[in-house]
Structure formats: structure tokens, C-alpha cells
Design goal:
Layout lengths: L1 E2 L5 E2 L3 E3 L5 E3 L7 E2 L3 E2 L5 E3 L4 E3 L4 E2 L1 E6 L13 E6 L13 H4 L9 E2 L2 H10 L4 E4 L8 H13 L3 E6 L5 H9 L3 E5 L5 H8 L4 H13 L3 E8 L7 H15 L5 E5 L14 H14 L4 E4 L4 H4 L1 E2 L6 E6 L2 E5 L30 E3 L6
Parallel strand pairs: 11-13, 13-14, 14-15, 15-16, 16-17, 17-18
Antiparallel strand pairs: 1-6, 2-8, 3-4, 4-5, 7-8, 9-12, 10-11, 10-22, 19-20, 20-21
Length: 363
Amino acid sequence: MDQGTASGAPGRYWHVLPDLRVQCDLCPRYCKLHEGQRGLCFVRARQKDRMVLTTYGRSSGFCIDPIEKKPLNHFLPGTPVLSFGTAGCNLTCKFCQNWDISKARVLDRLQDAASPEAIAKAAVASRCRSVAFTYNDPVIFLEYAVDVAQACRERGVKTVAVSAGYIAPEPRAEFFRFMDAANIDLKGFTEAFYKNLCSAQLAPVLETLVYLKHETNVWFEITTLLIPGENDTEAEIEALSLWVLGHLGPDVPLHFTAFHPDWKMLDTPPTSPSTLVRARHIARNIGLRYVFTGNIHDPAGQGTYCHACEALLIGRDWYDITAWNLASDGRCRECGAACPGVFEAAPGNWGRRRLPLGRPAFA
């Protein structure tokens, strides 16, 4: 645990142990804190015999992104999403590509202050259809995320969680009750990968995926970053794909994305495009219907195809929509087969633009 002073909003999901330490019950780490200590995530801290969230109402920045960047390919395609994060993380991934935010150890990194109501109003004003909790994992700022989601829901704005899914059962139920969509990072498919590269466990992530599928109406997709020599063997990709098919069914979109050297894995080479194409081929042959490649230019691997007749339903070039062959009810115009997702009669036209938002937008 980290030592340090703390101030912030009251946190939920904790209890006092017989030895008078306070245990955080938010995620499977169950950090046990003395007065003045912070959990591994750094943002949940013990203060005066209670748990507080030190980043409530503060953000590391806001940006309007294409929803496909989350990545979500079957959730309001082509629309803009207001993205923001805070600081800290409850995983220690050596390959983190947002390490300057997720590994932040000083709250000065949080420069933008915004209330839940201000964020919801900014989303409406900027014509964003949704707000995404991203850049760092939103489960560690659950109280803030839930309040933002409630404010958004009151204004007809949807919310998206980009998360590793590393959360305990009771807070999991509350957190996802307020989310409309999610992308879950399934970082690998072995306990050794999670232990050695993330200081975590695989099982709780799988439990979150099963929970989302069978206990909620949240639209969710899965992302696996393929890292050369770590989680990119055919055997592991087959095992992951078979698990998804058996436990979640064939319709949950799966994204295989390319690793780029970063954080503590600068000596690991980038993922080759051929590795992603091979992974997609394996998963589709196993029976998954919607498998995508990411972080490479691959229009063929980024399109959505009809599972019944193989017609191109949604064409994509990076984050641009290049083709749209869905009827207004989300069915294939060629054969009438349904395509699962959250669709409207026509896609948005936001494209690949990224638009940073400064402090005035939240005044």
C-alpha cells in the first residue's frame, strides 16, 4: 500500500477488520489499510477510519472520440462519445499504453474539475450520444462514475465503461446497473499472464464477462491486446475463443488489437498485422461471428459481416464508416438476418475526428 494524505468523497464497499485495518471491498485485491494508506489503485484511501475516493469530480482530461475508438463496433456506430478518465488503476500492467494516467501517483495530474451534472450537460451541448469512462479503469472511481451515469441518463445520454472487469461481485452489480455499454479488456487467457504482467487474476475477469452476458442488458464487447511472445500463440487464441463461444455465445464482438512497445515493455516488438489476421481467422473458424482487428489498417478485418449470408453490413476504414447495409430494425438488407447490437436507422457521421475539450466546456 502507498502512504499519503487523502481527501475526497466518501467511498463505498469497505469494512473494518478485527485488527482495526480498513479493508477495501471494491476489487479482488481487497487492500487492507492503516490510517493514511492508499490502496494499490492509489485513489482509494483510508481517512479517519473510513474509505474515501480522492479523485471524485476531477479528471485527467476530456475529449470527443468516435465510439469505434473504445472500441465498440456494434453500439451506435459513427457517433461521437465524450471520453474522460481520472488517475490510477487497480492493475499493474507492464504493457499499459495509458501509463501516464493510469500509473499517476500525484493528484496534480488531475487538472480538470467537473461535476456529474456538468459532464452530462457538456455531452448534450457537444451532441455526444454517450459518455465513456476510459483512459484509466472506471471501477476504481465507481462512486463518481455512477453519479455521472445517473446525470447522463436523466438527459438521455448513454454511458460506456472501458474496463478490465477487475471488480468484486457486489460493486459489480451496482456499477453495471448504470452502464449502457462496456468494452472489457480480456488481457490474456492464462493465470500466469495475469499474475506476471498485471499482478492480478484471470478468474474475476471471466466472472465479470459471464455476469454481463447473463445478468444484465449491457451491450458489451471484448478486447484482447496480442503481445508477441506473451499471449499470441494459436493455442491460447483457440482457448480464449472457445471460452467466449461456450460461455458468452457467438454474438459478442471480439477485438484483437496490436501491441506497441510502451511503459515497461519497450523491448517487446510490435504485433505484426499477420498475427492479428491469424487470430481473427482462428476465432471465426471456431464460431465467433463478429471478430475484428485493431490498431492496424485492415478494412477487411474491421468490417461487420452478416453471419448468415456474409454480406458486408458495416464497412470501416479505421474509424470511418464506409458502408451501411443494415435495415432500420438492425437486420441485413440482403437476407434479413438480425445483427446483434445497439443500432439506429442510419449511422452517425462523426468519423475519425478527435476533439479535446477544455475547462470552458464544463463551466
